[in-house]
């Protein structure tokens, strides 16, 4: 069959966008898993952190499903939702839509520019759950906020939150980022283990100054990525709870692939939601010729690059300079 796709990214977290809805592709669950494994491989495939599927929704404007590069499905993806949302906003010629995801219906809105020539999209990150059962995480307690978990480290404090995909967050100085501990702990928690049997996204956060943080994430199902939208949202929330940032105030979040803005809201019921605002940039479109039974043997045809990457390249250069002066 011939499969049309767009490769794009949110903060350098790159995805293949496949529109099942418009093109009427019929996939089984196994097909989606196999496509992610085959096409996301950076050596033998096209290369990406995951596949974002655009689907029809029975009650919302569209539906998103996200598969990590290892073929596993995630319940949510913040950077992927911006890319998906941009595609659907353009398709429906709207400024705001509601997107069905695995566990919630979330809004996506156009929101000015994140940088000159780089349009921004605001997406809702919700629900926010603190019970460790929601991750799941088993350490003999119900919640984890800024505490040492002896099974993980003697001196790094962790907080856990599901948005609703699972996140473990440590906040500290430049030495924490440079420690090498993130890889060790994340690999342990994403291998066979009793603490996080489904794996977990692990982020190390460096507060640069009030209103500005840096986040690096080891993603479940992928490994280190340039950025993870749900992780940056969850990390901003944790810094607010620690008193380092303010609720309702924009926080600039630097990452290895660019920067976004996050705003944490607390509602009357006490529940939190987070707005994640950043780019959804297209890199190229192409047609993939493959047999769904053997997606590893594919042919990439009619590849056409989008020029909008140039403006993003400028943003990225500025971010690299900022990070070299303030983080590394
Ligand atoms: N990069 C994503 C999150 C993708 C899913 C994650 N790896 C998981 O398995 O939970 C984002 O931008 O949020």
TrEMBL record:
| Pfam family for this entry, one | DAP_epimerase
Q: Where is this protein primarily located?
A: cytoplasm
Assigned keywords, A-Z: Amino-acid biosynthesis, Cytoplasm, Isomerase, Lysine biosynthesis
Q: InterPro entries per the record?
A: DAP_epimerase_AS, DAP_epimerase_DapF
Q: Which GO terms describe its biological process?
A: lysine biosynthetic process via diaminopimelate
Q: Which residues make up the binding site for substrate?
A: 13, 68, 78-79, 165, 201, 219-220, 229-230
Q: Which domain of life is it from?
A: Bacteria
Which EC numbers characterise this protein's activity in its record?
A: 5.1.1.7
For whether the record's keyword set contains Cell cycle, the answer is no
Pathway field of the UniProt record reads:
Amino-acid biosynthesis; L-lysine biosynthesis via DAP pathway; DL-2,6-diaminopimelate from LL-2,6-diaminopimelate: step 1/1
Active-site residues (renumbered): 77 (proton donor), 77, 228 (proton acceptor)
Q: Which GO molecular function annotation, any one, does this entry have?
A: diaminopimelate epimerase activity
Q: Which GO terms describe its cellular component?
A: cytosol
Q: Where is this site: Could be important to modulate the pK values of the two catalytic cysteine residues?
A: 167, 219
| Reactions catalysed | (2S,6S)-2,6-diaminopimelate = meso-2,6-diaminopimelate
Q: What PANTHER family does this protein map onto?
A: DIAMINOPIMELATE EPIMERASE, DIAMINOPIMELATE EPIMERASE, CHLOROPLASTIC
Name the job this protein performs. Catalyzes the stereoinversion of LL-2,6-diaminopimelate (L,L-DAP) to meso-diaminopimelate (meso-DAP), a precursor of L-lysine and an essential component of the bacterial peptidoglycan.
* HAMAP family recorded: DAP_epimerase
Describe the subunit structure.
Answer: Homodimer.
Identify its protein family. Belongs to the diaminopimelate epimerase family.
- What's the protein here called? Diaminopimelate epimerase
Originating species:
Domibacillus antri
